């Protein structure tokens, strides 16, 4: 949902136009009117995160003969090239409270400017709120949303998936209360219990549940899909991950296996940590990698070819599935110049950021433009994949999604 508070100065007006209501992963356009023909201006977007950090982006435009700037296309989360106003910090921009909108202030300034926006009065401004919305009465297909090794409960992707018609449950499996209180990591039963919660929920179609994993979440998702006797999935989406892990290991043993190769960590000239070599070379021992050849459900792999954190590009799961004769179940989206953190579209690209659990600067990889276009393309295709595999064959009128 979008709420607009339009302000005008000196008869210059800036309007957000269609869609007047929309989701976080949709684009909207801005119209500037009543400026002199040929007038140069800067359209500036600013978002203040819940952690207090502010992010900004801007673009330069020239008015047409009627004094109008039309077709300023913005993403719902503002621009994909949002950067922090206070440069030097390497924190990530993530929406934590998904029950409130993401608020962005879009303003117009005279001339083609690059800095000093906070010290000026804009020609015009508008506040745009982007919501996550749940559509229809249900019941809905279910989806387990499993993030990576950074821990914490991250819900904005699950909320956005819910907006597209999936009953999504985000899992905090590395830093839940039981782990923080006892120091003991959860077991497979944690994920199986989450699956049963979805399966038996009255608003969920229990026979239509998928799983989506990012980074270390891919390890969990593949293991559950292949080996769990409880979790019966319809499809799996794996982003920036690998099937390499001790297949009989607990979550804690898997983490230990990853860490035992810590000597393969590289540090670049900027003192950024590169972890992609920890799992290389890909082992030939089948006890050290999930046999994806046993999968009997569709699998979508999303790979950044410049991933500096995980060897997703080298994992070659497609070869294992080809040998097993189930490659028809595999779809691979591979993106050049794209890094590790492939998130929903219009999220800023983080080539480097702080890995909070151990407070080091990690190199994720990717080039801003290529990575950002990959996020947009991958998200669209992920939604298509989920709809095809979780909605296909349902009776008309059972539910609806936006």
From TrEMBL:
Biological process according to GO: acyl-CoA metabolic process; fatty acid metabolic process
Gene3D superfamilies for the chain: Acyl-CoA thioester hydrolase/BAAT N-terminal domain (2.60.40.2240), alpha/beta hydrolase (3.40.50.1820)
BAAT/Acyl-CoA thioester hydrolase C-terminal domain span: 189-391
Domain Acyl-CoA thioester hydrolase/bile acid-CoA amino acid N-acetyltransferase: 25-136
Active site residues per record: 215, 307, 340
UniProt cross-references to Pfam families, sorted A to Z: BAAT_C, Bile_Hydr_Trans
Single GO molecular function: fatty acyl-CoA hydrolase activity
PANTHER family, per database record: ACYL-COA THIOESTERASE 17-RELATED, ACYL-COENZYME A THIOESTERASE-RELATED
Family: Belongs to the C/M/P thioester hydrolase family.
Name of the molecule in the record: Uncharacterized protein
């Amino acid at each position: 949902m979008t709420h607009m508070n339009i302000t005008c100065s000196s008869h210059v007006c800036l309007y957000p136009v269609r869609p007047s209501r929309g989701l976080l992963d949709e684009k909207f356009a801005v119209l500037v009117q009543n400026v002199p023909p040929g007038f140069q201006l800067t359209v500036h977007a600013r978002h203040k995160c819940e952690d207090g950090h502010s992010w900004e982006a801007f673009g330069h435009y020239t008015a047409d003969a009627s004094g109008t700037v039309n077709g300023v296309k913005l993403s719902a989360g503002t621009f994909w090239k949002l950067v922090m106003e206070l440069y030097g910090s390497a924190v990530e921009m993530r929406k934590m409270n998904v029950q409130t909108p993401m608020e962005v202030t879009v303003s117009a300034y005279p001339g083609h400017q690059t800095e000093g926006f906070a010290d000026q009065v804009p020609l015009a401004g508008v506040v745009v709120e982007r919501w996550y919305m749940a559509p229809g009465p249900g019941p809905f297909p279910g989806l387990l949303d499993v993030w990576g090794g950074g821990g914490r409960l991250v819900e904005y992707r699950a909320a956005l998936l819910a907006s597209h018609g999936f009953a999504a449950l985000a899992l905090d499996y590395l830093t839940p209360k039981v782990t923080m209180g006892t120091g003991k990591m959860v077991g497979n039963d944690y994920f199986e219990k989450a699956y049963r919660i979805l399966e038996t929920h009255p608003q969920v179609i229990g026979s239509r549940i998928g799983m989506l994993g990012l980074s270390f979440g891919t390890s969990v998702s593949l293991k559950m899909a292949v080996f769990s006797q409880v979790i019966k999935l319809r499809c799996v989406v794996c982003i920036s991950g690998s099937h390499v892990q001790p297949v009989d290991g607990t979550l804690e043993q898997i983490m230990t296996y990853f860490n035992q190769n810590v000597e393969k960590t590289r540090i670049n000239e900027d003192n950024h940590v590169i972890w992609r070599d920890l799992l290389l070379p890909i082992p030939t021992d089948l006890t050290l990698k999930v046999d994806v050849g046993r999968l009997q459900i569709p699998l979508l792999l999303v790979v950044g070819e410049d991933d500096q954190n995980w060897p997703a590009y080298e994992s070659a799961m497609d070869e294992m599935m080809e040998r097993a004769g189930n490659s028809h179940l595999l779809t691979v989206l591979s993106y050049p110049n794209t890094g590790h953190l492939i998130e929903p579209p219009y999220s800023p690209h983080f080539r480097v950021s702080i890995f909070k659990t151990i407070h080091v600067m990690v190199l994720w990889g990717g080039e801003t433009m290529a990575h950002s276009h990959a996020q947009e393309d991958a998200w669209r295709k992920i939604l298509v994949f989920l709809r095809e595999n979780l909605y296909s064959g349902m009776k008309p009128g059972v539910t609806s999604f936006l």
